[in-house]
Amino acid sequence: MTTVTNKNETGGDVRLSGISKTYDNGFTAVQPLDLTVPQGSFFALLGASGCGKTTTLRMIAGLEEPTTGTVFLGDQEVTNLPPYKRPVNTVFQSYALFPHLDIFENVAFGLRRRGIKSVKKQVEDMLELVQLGEQARKKPHQLSGGQQQRVAVARALINHPKVLLLDEPLGALDLKLRRQMQLELKRIQTEVGITFVHVTHDQEEAMTMADTVAVMNAGRVEQLGSPTDLYENPHTTFVANFLGTSNLIEAEVDTKNGDDIVLKAGGGKLVLPESRCSAPTTTGGKVLVGVRPEKISLTHADDAGEIPEGRNRITGKIANSSFIGVSTQYVIDSAVCPEFEVYVQNIERDSRLVPGADVVLHWSPAHTFGLDAAQDIDAGVEEGAAA
Amino acid sequence: MPFVNWLKRNLVVIAGLLTLGYLLLPNVVVTVFSFNKPKGRFNYEWQQFSTDAWKDPCGVADMCGSLSISLQIAAFATIGATILGTMIAFALVRYRFRARGAVNSLIFLPMAMPEVVMAASLLTLFLNMGAQLGFWTILIAHIMFCLSFVVTAVKARVMSMDPRLEQAAQDLYAGPFQTFVRVTLPIAAPGIAAGALLAFALSFDDFIITNFNAGSTVTFPMFVWGSAQRGTPVQINVIGTAMFLVAVLLVLTSMVITNRRNKQKA
Amino acid sequence: MATLTEAPPPLAPTAPEKKPPRKRGRLVPYWLLLPGMLWLVVFFALPMVYQASTSVQTGSLEEGYKVTWHFATYWDALSEYWPQYLRSILYAGSATILCLVLGYPLAYLIAFRAGRWRNLIMILVIAPFFTSFLIRTLAWKTILADGGPVVGALNSLHVLDVTSWLGWTTGDRVLATPLAVVCGLTYNFLPFMILPLYTSLERIDTRLHEAAGDLYAKPITTFRKVTFPLSMPGVVSGTLLTFIPAAGDYVNADLLGSTDTRMVGNVIQSQFLRILDYPTAAALSFILMAAILVMVTVYIRKSGTEDLV
User: Fold this and answer.
1) Is the residue at A238 inside a domain?
2) pLDDT value, residue C20
3) Is the CB of residue A68 less than 8 Å away from at least one CB of chain C?
């Protein structure tokens, strides 16, 4: 019996193997790529514009023909199937609702094309699911952005596709509505259990909604994993900078101490668990040491003695501070890194921590990660800021 | 100086309305003179009020026959030019092909050519081929010069169409034919309708090209031309006025209907 | 059951293999283009070739024509009919300028100042089209009639004295003078100026006017520096759509003019349809076409708007 369940479980897997796309003008949007999206998961392709994420999605939908490689949906190879023969549906960027049809007919479109005669009940149920029962006879342009978005989802989902593809589905909505729709989409996905592949440039959106995120850059997948995994333990400078903010310090491998690596940076020593380092660690080799701004504690230089043993520490001077409500963000000038960012929660504010004050930054070695120093230290900074 | 200021602010409006008056003045004259009872053969001077012509619009020999020929030619020319022009417009917007530049010039040139040149050269062709001038040569000529205008109108509409709509249709199990019938055509319809309307108007009112290639067939504009030499019956003005009024009424009703429909939905 | 365990199909070898691109649909554009293009080639381009060939033929209607490369026809046509060519360009040019001057305020009015009247005015601009242009042109005979109110008013304002002195009118007549022909041409092609002007004016964001005003531009400066330059595409296509048909027109010169106002269109028409001298007619028509193509090309290059189609 297990084998049968096993087969069913792969029924909605999306498997891309060696897939790539080079356009006629010679631009390679996607480098040869292997990717498996398991059945029933919420998968996000995250990256800045032009990174190849939408092209990848369109190759799954059949709207773009791969230059090389194959696309599998479960056991079926669909590489050469036109879009209208694939059991896959798409929620398009800016929705692409048919302007000449009303909401009911938009949602019924796929059913009717497959020759299903009695669509009324199904369409009404689907419109109920997305809370648009009242609007069935309106034209798309008479609905608000959020309502249009739900129609687009309903129009795709009613066909019970093996995979639902979402191309920047929330890009046109304002911030508040976007938050609301993120939760809504997550709820629908849990309810229907269909595999969702979601393309977005918004890291927060990807992390909130997806079980697995693939970060793409320049046509390649930089790193694939759960949102926590990607955030806590990035493997490339691009991921470290694109997802949130990272402080990166150039350091040199000094010695190994059990499971930890001891590194020299500036005058001091830093400790990094070997398991959290994605770079080769030969003694004397260079490594980029990273730490997220909110993992760092800030102590005034006068109280340096109170800092517990075994924490990584760096000294510096506060260059700038800005109060943003839940936290205060400091920029610290230090010998090892010119603009060290530190976010401190506003629980007990130390009134001595003002620009010009000498401070000690310290954090747990367990929050440290190590990256290959051969990469561009600023990769993904601008893309992350733009997103 | 409030008046001078008012004048300054509304100078454009006044000038615009004067131009509008210039545009409409002949129509006013045509309408007024449709109620005239001229003394001689020509209807250029006001004599006295009469509704004779309105009571008997077809009372002039051959006029309504020529009107009917013009309407037939315009209808066929519209159908022909709209089908051919729409096909070209889709090819231009939606596909990549060789010799695009040549195709574009061949579409642009008929619009940049004085009618008399096209008329004369087409006549040379027909004479060389020994073709019988008449209904069919007129129709051929009309489809030829309407084609470019249809292409331009349809192209504008298809270009502004979101290609994702067709992709969405394909994504929702519509094959190429279904996609075209269910999505592309309905959305392109306003552009096609505009092109068809333009073709109809151009064909119906064409004189120069028709005059060269008509042989002994007489269209309505040719009838009017002939009557300018022989004597202008009042019925010409009746037809002119009636067509003006029908056009304005049709447009106004369609506007009122769309307005009401929009209001109901909102 | 055992077979099911092995169910996952073999993955394609990871080595990227090149697949032939989808062939279907390659020929679609050519099939779409074929009928229409064929129509234009046979009934537009081919006639031009026939006309070119006719223009260098000699012979007579009775004995038939032969191609003898008789280019003298061109020379004879030009030397005999240059006044008509000159007149065509002069009348069409004046009408075009008048159309621009008269049409711009109306297009501006519809685009920016009409408010709820916009659609109505649009209809009124287009609706006259539905009355045959010949009927409307004949109406000008009434409007400009000798001793009529328009001529009377112009006379009492001494306008006709000035225009007579300039050679635009003769005595106290307007009908059968150049002024009447230009007036008719202007009237007939005015909508072809207004519509493209309106289209390009309507696209202008009205906030640009406010921005210009905010940046210390007086209304007239705003117009000169912002509105007018942005409406250039409309000005260019409007002037072309007016000038080209006006230069080839013979209806206005015939109905509203006299033998002294004959334009080249009148000559071509009578050579073709009355005198039946086909070589001369073809040469005249060819010269007109060449002249207009040259002028249009230069004009489009100068105005920098090449994308008109």
Assistant:
1) no
2) 42
3) yes
- For B153, the domain range is 61-232
C-beta of residue A75 within 8 angstroms of C-beta of residue C8 = yes
CB A19 within 8 A of CB A69: yes
User: How distant is the Cα of B171 from the closest Cα of chain A, in angstroms?
Assistant: 5
pLDDT at C22: 47
| Residue A382 pLDDT greater than 90, yes or no | no
Q: Does B86 lie in the same domain as B6?
A: no
Point out the domain boundary residue: A185, A208, A232: A232
Choose between B54 and A10: higher pLDDT: B54
Could you tell me if residue A49 is left (phi over 0), alpha (psi between -120 and 50 degrees) or otherwise beta?
beta
Q: Which residue has the tokens 């309507």?
A: C202
Q: How far apart are CA A231 and CA A203, in angstroms?
A: 10
B11 with B134, same domain? Answer: no
Q: Which residue of C has its CA nearest to B43?
A: C142
Q: Nearest-CA distance from A196 to chain C in Å?
A: 21
The answer, for C253 touching chain B at a CB cutoff of 8 Å, is: no
What is the CATH classification number for the domain harbouring C218? Answer: 1.10.3720.10
| Cβ contact B44–C292 (<8 Å) | no
Does the distance separating the beta carbons of C191 and B208 come in below 8 Å?
no
Contact C36 B84 (CB under 8 A): yes
> Which of B152, B225, B244 is opposite residue C131, by nearest beta carbon?
B244
Sign of CA dihedral C87, C90, C93, C98: negative
How high is the pLDDT of residue C14?
38
If you count residue pairs, one on A and one on B, with CB atoms under 8 Å apart, how many are there?
A: 70
Cα of C3 to nearest chain A Cα, Å: 9
Write out the residue range of the structural domain in which residue A151 sits: 2-232
B89 lies in the same domain as B196: yes
Q: Residue B114 to residues A107, C243, C285, C291, C303: CA-CA distances in angstroms?
A: 51, 9, 9, 11, 21
What number of C-beta contacts closer than 8 Å exist between B and C? 248
Beta bridge partners of A363: A312
Q: How far is CA A288 from the centre of its chain?
A: 22
Of the partner residues B167, B178, B266, the one whose CB lies closest to the CB of residue A113: B178
Q: How many domains does chain A have?
A: 2
Q: Are residues B67 and B163 in the same domain?
A: yes
Question: Which candidate in B96, B171, B184, B265 is best for mutational testing of the A interface (most A CBs within 10 A)?
Answer: B171
The predicted model gives B169-183 an average pLDDT of 92
Name the percent of chain A lying above pLDDT 70: 96
Residues of chain C whose pLDDT is less than 50?
Answer: 1-23, 308-309
What range defines the domain where residue C135 resides? 82-262
Q: Is residue B82 part of a domain?
A: yes
**What is the interface pTM, i.e. ipTM, of the complex?**
0.89
Query: Residue A256's pLDDT band (boundaries 50, 70, 90)?
Result: confident
Q: Which of C29, C39, C103 sits opposite B143 (nearest CB)?
A: C39
Contacts of C26 in chain A (CB under 8 A): none
β-bridge pairing A88-91 and A14-22? unpaired
Contacts of C4 in chain A (CB under 8 A): 3-4, 6-7
Are residues A327 and A192 part of one domain? no
pLDDT, tens digit, for every residue of A136-168? 999 999 999 889 999 999 999 999 999 999 999
Q: Looking at the complex, report in whole angstroms how far the Cα of residue B90 sits from the nearest Cα belonging to chain A.
A: 19
> What pLDDT, on the 0 to 100 scale, is given for residue A5?
36
Q: Is B102 a residue whose pLDDT tops 70?
A: yes
Of C201, C189, C181, the closest CA to residue C114 belongs to C201
**Helix (H/G/I), strand (E/B), else coil: A43:** strand
Q: How many angstroms separate the CA atoms of A366 and A277, rounded?
A: 11
For residue range A28-67, list pLDDT tens digits in order. 999 999 999 999 999 999 998 889 999 999 999 999 999 9
